[in-house]
Amino acid sequence: MSDRSRRSGMREVARAAGVSVSTVANVLSRPSIVAPETRRRVEEAINRVGYVPHGPARQLRGVPSPIVGSVTLDLANPFYAEVNRGIEDRLAAEGCLLLACSTDLREDKETRLLKLLQAQAVRGVIISPIEVDPTRLLTLSRQGTPVVLIDHPRGDLDLCAVTVDDVLGGQLAGEHLLALGHRRIAYLGDTVDPAPVAGRREGLRQAIIAAGLDPADALLDLRLRMRPPSLVDAAAAAAREILSASPEVTAVVCLNDTAALGLLDGLETEGVRVPQDLSIVGYDDLSFARRLTPPLTTVRQPPYSVGKAAAELLLAESAPDHDHREIRFQPELVVRASTAPPR
Amino acid sequence: MSDRSRRSGMREVARAAGVSVSTVANVLSRPSIVAPETRRRVEEAINRVGYVPHGPARQLRGVPSPIVGSVTLDLANPFYAEVNRGIEDRLAAEGCLLLACSTDLREDKETRLLKLLQAQAVRGVIISPIEVDPTRLLTLSRQGTPVVLIDHPRGDLDLCAVTVDDVLGGQLAGEHLLALGHRRIAYLGDTVDPAPVAGRREGLRQAIIAAGLDPADALLDLRLRMRPPSLVDAAAAAAREILSASPEVTAVVCLNDTAALGLLDGLETEGVRVPQDLSIVGYDDLSFARRLTPPLTTVRQPPYSVGKAAAELLLAESAPDHDHREIRFQPELVVRASTAPPR
DNA sequence: GTGAAAGCGCTAACAA
DNA sequence: TTGTTAGCGCTTTCAC
């Protein structure tokens, strides 16, 4: 490969090898039909001028883009980072690449990102959508950009989806706390509810009802601004909020482990002991959950597998006989030391 | 926007509006020169057929790609996830997108990724490189794909770079331990040393020398396989290794906080108390470090700022009068409860 | 076995 | 003010 500056195309290769561009093209896509000697010369020329095929030009001729977009709440959120890693690994096996985007729970960003991705004519989009109205996603799919949902119920949409049973997750957390004897439980979530978080709250509510309690009394719904740039700090600040809002609360279920981490900090500052004074449940079971002070009771999800499955479904969309499917994972309760019977 | 299936191009818009393609193009890029009534008709047609410009075709005509590649060790590593978030946010302000890739510390993957990115004719590449030989990166840059290094000394390369002073980071960790009275310190790293990790080890060595000690006695260099899929577990397993290799070791500096997390687990299993029996220092100061059991002494780096600065430098490469620069951040020691004087 | 030519969707220079 | 035209780098017929 030479250091010749700027990029060179097939034309330069053809000139260097003394053949036509179509012969170069043949060497690249159907080497067997080219005379061995010619082929050798062309290959040598390719190395000499440092030729690399030009993706966009190939796309224009109908070769599909190797790029797949991933649209999540926040690519730095460890849960979605693992999802993306699962997507990336599955794509890599196909020579495809991951374009990762964050919405920060903002509809305008989501809209903008989808437009940008469509304009790039990506191979497809894997999205954990914010909004309830899925029209845009259906349109996108119908206009030729396959869409796979993650963390969002497929409903009656004509799309593939990979989900984790969030209602079950909420139930597991709720049942655990109820069994310990808690009768007033708070759910700490954001002001905007993406589908998975809403599902968990619903599961918690169902567990409370199933235990013969009235959610109006037993469930305190906390909706505070908990999002990307400062989730940990926001959760720490929520400690005071929770204590003043309702002193009778004896347990808090958090939207995720990161929020639980912040909340633990905030509670320490307020002099509240966990789990003696207050039980805390997280969500995700991130790698650090088991080594927090105290070790965090949480609900485990398999983010890497979710990502991998989503990529799998997306890649399958190109098949001619493709049927849209939903893959569902089950969450799992992990009991540690942040929960205990109420005082 | 209609639900008309498949994607439509300018031609369909032109037909729908009863004008030529170039008038459509004018409405899009120089609306002012088009007659108001014509413009209205064209805009209406654009919405009606759901037109979205075709990026690859525009690229072929010389419009630069909005896509920037990021090549790091592992996009799910919280440190690089934050770096990527910094990149993404800066790019978003310019309407650009982040293509995130992981090398898993493997040269062959790095090579393959760079080739793929170049083939996509991306706007540029931000890379935390594995290998010492930077020829490929220079070639890439000369062939028209700007390259910005992160976490790698710029040296005499004609490239932009964003770095954190890793030698200083290692020194800070070393000085802290030496001041506590430790005289035999282990450094836990991978078998392959990417530049930043090598720098930290070097800093530690320098601190030891500056204290008048002989690194041959005072520094135990542990090189174990510590990488992506199971870093935490590998570090946990390293506990036994450390204890058997050298019982006189009283402190361990880990390549990052995630490894420290795993090591803490492993040590607990082995019945070793931290910091009473062994002091542990991490690196990065991830959000969970301060709430681990015990709270982790570590060296803080500003990943989000590193990413943001790298994106800034990359975007600046398009300017005609561009000069390659290096931006350097300083790490900071954060003392917590995982370090104490040796017994 | 090799080359000439058309055209993918778009931009920009120029003509009308 | 609008339309015609020539390519960007590539793949793919179809002649030679």
Characterization of the model:
Chains A, B: InterPro entries: HTH_LacI (IPR000843), LacI/GalR-like_sensor (IPR046335), Lambda_DNA-bd_dom_sf (IPR010982), Peripla_BP_I (IPR028082). Chains A, B: This is LacI family DNA-binding transcriptional regulator. The structure is a homodimer of 343-residue chains. The first copy, chain A, has 13 helices and twelve strands. In chain A, the strands form three sheets. The first copy, chain A, has a six-stranded parallel sheet with strand order 2-1-3-4-5-11, with helices on both faces. The first copy, chain A, has three domains: 3-60, lambda repressor-like DNA-binding domains (434 Repressor (Amino-terminal Domain), Orthogonal Bundle); 67-164 and 303-330, Rossmann fold (3-Layer(aba) Sandwich); 166-301, Rossmann fold, CATH 3.40.50.2300. With 343 residues, the first copy, chain A, is of the alpha/beta class. The interface between A and B is large, with 61 and 61 residues. The first copy, chain A, binds a DNA duplex (16 and 16 nucleotides) through helix 2 and helix 4.
